[in-house]
Design brief:
single chain; 30% helix; nine-stranded antiparallel β-sheet; disordered N terminus; 526 residues
Length: 526
């Protein structure tokens, strides 16, 4: 659940966290094999936005996406509400403005708003030391334990890093008490306030801090956090359909399935990825209507669309204020002169002085983007049911920069680059697919079994599958003997099957972690 950015391009690597980081540093033809159904969904647009809607609809089809939803808003109006495609390729039910998407790391801005309501009531202070707010707070060093403030935990400049697999693959595993304790075990990669280091663990601790300061026990954090978000953020901001959830099934009826391309470029449904105690960093389930109301609350300086004061303008603006530079991509940020992270928001400044305050998100099968231009009284929501890597972020990248270029003459040429980037990503998948062969049952039989970290390696006939929690990732083999994920969350990621020094089978998910087998499995009959 990392920061996917408005003006950035995915880097190599395929978790929600790495896709977000890559986007921060920087969203058709055959497509994914799933057409859109725009005529079946209710679309509303003022006359001024009909042409924009038509171009967005065309790009949605060109990128071969399954389901998405786009809104353009001002403080007083919804200028465009554009559901696109279907919620599920089997039922063909159309996306509506009420269809719930997992919105991933855009939740971070909602978590900082929750903290701001505590500051409004004098229950917390931005510059209060975390250990003073909650005596149980522990950071990796004594100096950081003594010095980190509330705002630091929400600001990505603590200097604390986290292993790529921690919140990218294993976020659903720790309980809240375990998450709190894990902070002290993370590596310190840079001095405080010197380097942008995106960290979901630190952010989640910061999101829980207001509750801990109020006396909520660690064991009760997850349920209490969900209730506080409902009472203080979702309800007051007009997000009537929003809630904390990992999986919408059994909770709501109108919801989106998440998808990812395989090595043919075809879209395949993904299992819902667990978020668990990392909910403050990315656990919101919400509709286009919900997110449009939320962005309008920011344009209205903390007043909801029904006139209710949700949070003070002063403390809301404190969340937007940048304090650590975020890397820019010359290719995808041509007119951005500065970018910095605030608390759950990234603040870009363009060459003409325009501000763009935004955040994005990525989770299994979903990418999301929200942003607003306060001087222009304009906001944008883009929800997309496509995996962050390698293709998902190109759609929001296209839509945002279409808006910027058409309306304000900024970032001209970037929509075409986003379109080309999506094509190139799909071509890369197909090329890899042509070089991938089925695995050899005899060669892989000694590696089947359970591994550390919750991994399992199984075989179903000719198919070799890597499992992690609810996720299933099929594997193929490349000419160099390495294995590659052919579909699912980590599509195109390499996996190496080797032996440890004591001859125990070992599995390396390249770029993430290496684990040893603990319990073997009998090779199934073929």
């Amino acid at each position: 659940m990392g920061p996917d950015a408005a003006s950035t391009l995915p880097s190599t690597g395929t978790t929600r966290r790495t896709a977000v980081r890559g986007l921060m540093a920087a969203g058709l033809a055959a497509g994914l094999g799933v057409g859109s159904s725009p005529a079946r969904a209710a679309v509303t647009a003022t006359d001024d936005w009909q042409g924009f809607a038509a171009r967005v609809r065309e790009e949605f089809a060109a990128m071969g996406l399954t389901g998405a939803a786009v809104a353009v808003v001002s403080r007083d109006r919804v200028l465009l509400s554009l559901p696109l495609g279907v919620r599920d390729i089997e039922s063909r039910a159309p996306v509506t403005s009420s269809s719930r998407f997992l919105v991933a790391s855009t939740t971070k801005s909602m978590t900082s708003l929750l903290a701001a309501t505590y500051v409004d009531r004098g229950q917390l202070a931005w510059d209060q030391r975390a250990v003073d707010a909650w005596p149980g707070f522990r950071a990796p060093t004594g100096q950081l334990t003594r010095s980190l403030r509330v705002r630091d935990l929400l600001g990505m400049a603590t200097g604390i890093d986290e292993p790529p697999a921690l919140s990218g693959l294993h976020e659903g595993e720790p309980t809240a008490p375990q998450l709190l304790r894990s902070l002290a075990t993370l590596p310190v990669a840079a001095p405080r306030d010197t380097t942008f280091l995106y960290n979901n663990t630190v952010y989640s601790v910061g999101g829980y801090l207001p509750l801990l300061a109020s006396g909520v026990s660690a064991d009760a954090l997850t349920g209490t956090f969900a209730d506080e978000m409902r009472r203080r953020v979702y309800g007051p901001a007009g997000m009537t359909g929003a809630r904390i959830a990992d999986d919408p099934r059994g909770l709501v009826t109108d919801f989106m399935r998440g998808y990812a391309p395989d090595l043919t470029g075809a879209g395949r449904p993904l299992a819902y990825g667990p978020v668990g105690s990392y909910a403050p960093a990315g656990g919101t389930l919400a509709s286009l209507d919900d997110m449009a109301a939320y962005v309008r609350t920011h344009l209205r300086r903390g007043v909801s669309v029904d006139g209710r004061r949700v949070v003070s303008a002063k403390n809301l603006a404190e969340c937007w204020k940048p304090h650590i530079p975020v890397p820019l991509s010359p290719e995808f940020d041509p007119d951005v002169t500065a970018s910095g992270y605030g608390m759950g928001w990234i603040h870009n400044r363009f060459r003409d002085g325009t501000s763009l305050i935004w955040h994005n998100g990525g989770i299994d099968g979903f990418t999301s983007y929200i942003g607003f231009l306060p001087e222009r009284d304009l906001g944008l929501v883009v929800l997309n049911a496509m995996n962050p890597a390698p293709t998902g972020p190109y759609f929001s990248l296209y839509v945002l920069n279409l808006l910027l270029s058409e309306r304000f003459g900024l970032n001209r040429g970037v929509p075409a680059k986003a379109h080309a980037g999506s094509l190139a990503a799909l071509d890369g998948l197909r090329d890899l697919g042509r070089r991938t062969a089925p695995t050899d049952p005899g060669a892989t039989a000694p590696y089947l079994g359970h591994y550390e970290g919750g991994y399992r390696l199984t075989r179903d006939g000719r198919d070799l599958n890597l499992h992690l929690g609810p996720r299933t990732m099929p594997l193929g083999i490349l000419p160099d003997g390495s294995h590659v994920v052919t579909g699912g969350l980590l599509v195109e990621n390499k996996v190496l099957l080797t032996r440890d020094v004591d001859d125990t089978p070992r599995l390396e998910v390249v770029g993430f972690e290496t684990v040893r087998r603990t319990v073997g499995l009998e090779s199934p009959r073929t």
